Amino acid sequence: MTLLVDVSEPRDIIAELSYAGIPVEVVKLDVGDYVVGHFLIERKESKDFLNSIYDSRLFRQLKEMNDQEEFKPVLIVHGPIPPRNKWIRVGKSSRPIKVSLSEEERERRLRRIIAGLSTALNSYHRVSVLLLKDVDQFCQFLIDLYYRQTEHKSRKPVVKRKAESIEDYKWNIFSQFPGIGSKGASTLLESGISILELASMSPEEIQRRFRGIGKKRATLIHQILTS
User: Which long-range contacts (CB under 8 A, 24 or more apart) does 125-129 make?
Assistant: First the structure.
């Protein structure tokens, strides 16, 4: 099964999916941003999500998704909530002053908006709404969803190479890292990095050097090599 991604989606997300061993095809999707089996997914960062409510663009997009009867439509919102201000009055006769909302308050407000939207959509449409923390969590959601969809087709493990050289041994080790797969192992091998060098790198350094490895995966690789 191939995971379809709209051409407008970030390259980093596509690279992350490829590193996880998922076959990805970049196409022009008329509706939604991702097709994973029978799931049609629209991805929105928090700022775009709020803007699309104000200009009514969101409801048009969700209606178009809902009309695709062969798919289960899902809206996913992720990322930091943009700062907003509110006016408060200190004392009965004083002038109102403007204060910035804390990140926690912005998070609560966004969750209330999404909860209200979910209720409305569940009443009239088939669209499910999910709130995720960041793009790494979104990528992991796609990876998990993809492999759940393909479980009945017996997901194949990475086949080890017959080790005839040091490079083959290194490839076999790299390919067993979570979410790396055969393609990611080849990328690590081609970089010329040794296992000792990789173990000495921080998760942030691993992320910077190898595009497509997210924060969580880089942290897990670091823990495996240093524990």
Answer: 125/62, 125/63, 125/66, 125/73, 126/66, 126/72, 126/73, 127/62, 127/65, 127/66, 127/73, 127/74, 127/75, 128/72, 128/73, 128/74, 128/75, 129/74, 129/75, 129/76, 129/77
